[in-house]
From TrEMBL:
<dbReference type="InterPro" id="IPR000084">
    <property type="entry name" value="PE-PGRS_N"/>
</dbReference>
<dbReference type="InterPro" id="IPR038332">
    <property type="entry name" value="PPE_sf"/>
</dbReference>
<protein>
    <recommendedName>
        <fullName>PE domain-containing protein</fullName>
    </recommendedName>
</protein>
<feature type="domain" description="PE">
    <location>
        <begin position="4"/>
        <end position="85"/>
    </location>
</feature>
<dbReference type="Pfam" id="PF00934">
    <property type="entry name" value="PE"/>
</dbReference>
């Protein structure tokens, strides 16, 4: 039979590090959102407008995927935070 030994302090430190990483990525995504979702056409022709629209749609799709990843990340950090809490020893019966 295999046993898993987990050190609560290590799990808590990993959860904190992951939360910090998530904040950094969220900040970078927010800073890039305007520049990647609303592009101006390089010229006044239809091709330039179509290419700008295509890249804008790609940027919006990235932002949507990033939001889903951030939601998963938040749930994962919460699970680590909860799972890393020290276990209370069982109480003896009265």
């Amino acid at each position: 039979m295999s046993f898993v030994i987990a050190v609560p302090e290590t799990i808590a430190a990993a959860a904190t590090d992951l939360a910090d990483l998530g904040s950094t990525i969220a900040g970078a995504n927010a800073a890039a959102a305007a520049n990647t979702t609303s592009l101006l056409a390089a010229g006044a022709d239809e091709i330039s407008a179509a290419i700008a629209a295509l890249f804008g749609a790609h940027g919006r799709a990235y932002q949507a995927a990033s939001a889903e990843a951030a939601a998963f990340h938040g749930r994962f950090v919460q699970a680590l935070t909860t799972g890393g809490a020290p276990m209370r020893p069982p109480r003896p019966p009265p």
